[in-house]
Amino acid sequence: MLVLFDVNPAWQRTLTELEDAYPYQLADYPRRGDGIALFSKREPLRAQLRQLGPSNRKTMVAICADEDQEFTVIATHLFPPISARLSQVRDEQLQAVGELAAETAGPLLVMGDLNTSPWSPIFRQLARTSGLRDSRRGYGLQVTWTGARGGAVRTVSGE
C-alpha cells in the first residue's frame, strides 16, 4: 500500500503509471494541491475520503485485509502550526483523528503528516484519546516537522 499527500491534478496524469503495480486506487486531486491518494496491490474491503475537523482536507479511511486479518488505515495530512489559526485547525483535526481511532475496532494504523512533535500536548492527547502508541518509541528522536520547510512522516499505530 502506498499513500501520497499533497497531490494535485498534474500528479494524476503521472500516477496512472502505478496502475499495473497498484491496481486499486482512491484519490482526491484538488487544484489547491493538498490532495491524498491511496494505491494498493490488494483491494480494500472499504475505502472512503472523509473530512475530519474544520478543514476541507480529506482523510483516507480504508478497511483492508491481509490474509485472514482485517485492519484499518487512517491516512491524513494536518495543517502545519505556523499561525495561531492554523494551530487551532491542526489541533481540531488531530482531535477528530483521535476520536475516529478510538471508535475503530481491531488493528489500526494512523499514518501521515501530523505536523506535530512528540512533546506536543495535542499529540499526547491523541495517544490518550485513541489508545494508540507512538511508533517512534524505542527508536530515538525522529523529528517529523521541520517548520516552514515542510515535514516528514509520523506514523502512529495501534497495539
How would you describe what is shown here?
The protein is an alpha+beta fold and 159 residues long. The chain has one domain (2-157): Endonuclease/exonuclease/phosphatase (Deoxyribonuclease I, Chain A, 4-Layer Sandwich), CATH 3.60.10. It is built from three helices and nine strands. Strand 5 and strand 6 (69-77) form a beta hairpin. The longest helix has 20 residues, at 84-103. It is globular and about 40 Å long. It starts with a strand and ends with a strand.
> How many helices?
3
**Main sheet: strand order:** 4-5-6-7-9-8
Structural class of the helices, strands and pairings? alpha+beta
Shape: globular
CATH superfamily: Endonuclease/exonuclease/phosphatase
Low-confidence stretches: 148-159
The whole-number mean of residue pLDDT values reads 84
State the domain count.
1
What is the gyration radius calculated from CA atoms? 15 Å
Cα(first) to Cα(last) distance is 20 Å
**Largest sheet descriptor:** 6 strands, mixed
The CATH level-2 architecture is identified as 4-Layer Sandwich
- What is the fold-level CATH name, i.e. the topology? Deoxyribonuclease I, Chain A
Strand content: 25-35%
Order of helices and strands: EHEEEEEHEHEE
CATH top level is Alpha Beta
Count of extended strands: 9
Q: Helicity level, as a percent range?
A: 10-25%
